[in-house]
Write a structure and sequence with these properties.
Layout: E1 10-17, E2 23-28, E3 36-37, E4 41-48, E5 51-53, E6 59-62, E7 65-67, H1 69-74, E8 79-80, E9 86-91, E10 99-109, E11 121-131
Antiparallel strand pairs: 1-2, 2-9, 3-8, 4-5, 4-10, 6-7, 6-9, 10-11
């Protein structure tokens, strides 16, 4: 199956409430020009309508494999390919309401060839997305 990615980092496809009702999912495209080892991902902060969700609480799924933030950092073999969206599972005690939401993402990545004192590289973006039934 070929995944079509939008140019923006925050993807409109895949923004939905989780079936268990314990939060929502948002998809991110890797904004870097090539794939990245997952241990270089420092995390993502997601904000929806002003409600902020910390990187340490957000689960990741890349290529069908689920990771906690600690598992991303500990992996020595997992990669985030440039053509595969990451699905972020954001915990929340109740689902988001049906309708439009302002979604912001701040993605923090380290680059293996950049000096440590200049790390991390931060990508930020905000979009209006919709939750449907």
């Amino acid at each position: 199956m070929v995944t079509v990615l939008e140019v923006p980092m925050i993807q409109t496809r895949g923004f939905r409430n989780r079936a268990a009702g314990d939060g929502f999912e948002v998809r991110l495209r890797l904004p870097y020009y090539r794939g990245l080892w997952t241990n270089l991902i420092e995390g993502a902060t997601i904000t929806v309508d002003g409600e902020r969700f910390a990187p340490g609480d957000i689960g990741w799924s890349i290529g069908g494999v689920r990771y906690s933030p600690a598992e991303l950092r500990a992996s020595e073999t997992a990669r985030w390919p440039v053509d595969v969206p990451a699905i972020l599972a954001v915990p929340r005690p109740r689902p988001l309401s049906i309708g439009f939401h302002t979604v912001a993402a701040e993605l923090r990545l380290r680059m293996s060839y950049i000096p440590e004192e200049l790390q991390p590289t931060v990508w930020s973006e905000e979009r209006r997305l919709v939750i449907t039934r």
